[in-house]
Prior knowledge:
4 strands
Amino acid sequence: MNRTTQGFTLVEAMLALAVIGIVVSSLVPGITGMLTVNNGERIRRDAVSAARTTVQALVASGIPTLPMKDLQVRRLTLNGRNYDVTVTYCSNPTFCAPATSRHLKLEVNENGRRLYSVETVVSIIQ
């Protein structure tokens, strides 16, 4: 009896599916890890943007009008997330002059978790 075989046997097909399943299942943790890191970086980028936007708004309001000693919390919404930006004025009085400069310390939080902090001195150059 002369038989010609065409196609795959059931065992070969099941083995091929098992190999594909193992390969795909090993890739899933890596992909989800990358998505988590990407989301974290987007949140941090938005926190930096919230700090930058706050500093720009403060400078635009006029440096002499800024308090010499104070703490303010501003809420900004970026990409559907709420960020609380805490601004501390002149925590280092060495860098504060009444008419020309302010030392600002900013801390950006989301749901009580600190995402970004920065200190800067803004001044009027004459």
